[in-house]
Amino acid sequence: MFKKFDEKENVSNCIQLKTSVIKGIKNQLIEQFPGIEPWLNQIMPKKDPVKIVRCHEHIEILTVNGELLFFRQREGPFYPTLRLLHKYPFILPRQQVDKGAIKFVLSGANIMCPGLTSPGAKLYPAAADTVVAIMAEGKQHALCVGVMKMSAEDIEKTSFLIKLGPVEATCLQSRVPTAVAAAREKLKPFHPKSLAPAAVAWAKPPVPGCLRL
């Protein structure tokens, strides 16, 4: 699942950004992540060169002085790298999985609804499509950057159906009772190659500083 980043193989070109473009990007970051505003000039100092590194699969990486800070795909929203999130953990809202889910999340599994409502997990209010930091029971730092594919309210409702239904599958398997499957029908996993709908999906850039899945 982890792939070593090779600059010659993965990077197509690198562009230094003009001041006007940088200003627009900063405004977009503030809009996406309101908590980042007081720290943005520290993360992206005004006089430091800001570049966009363009990679294959339409991935763009925002860098400052060679440090990878954010990434996006196809002009979509920006996501912080895991390294940046560890430095500024308060810039993203969080969700927490129980300690039993750690190895599965680090192996690239999306997080199913019960994974956020089981003992040891913590489900915080969040809307669908919110970018979140995935924490783990008993751990200080985030495991990954994820995207909410359902609202926290819908996750609670779906988990309630799972508890009532004749479920044989674990939260990492795609076999679910009909009622739950119907509730999840509207979901589209963040990554097109994912086979099972998920409550939280990985953000998966081929870049260092963020886990590559």
TrEMBL record:
GO terms for molecular function: RNA binding. SUPFAM superfamilies: PUA domain-like. Keywords: Cytoplasm, Growth regulation. InterPro entries: MCT-1/Tma20, Pre-PUA, PUA, PUA-like_sf, Uncharacterised_CHP00451. It is found in: Cytoplasm. Coiled coil: none annotated. Residues 93-169 form the PUA domain. Its main location: cytoplasm. GO terms for biological process: formation of translation preinitiation complex; translation reinitiation. Pfam families: Pre-PUA, PUA. One of its GO terms (cellular component) is cytoplasm. It comes from the Eukaryota. PANTHER family: MALIGNANT T-CELL-AMPLIFIED SEQUENCE 1 (PTHR22798:SF0), MCT-1 PROTEIN (PTHR22798). Belongs to the MCTS1 family. This is Malignant T cell-amplified sequence 1. It comes from Myotis davidii.
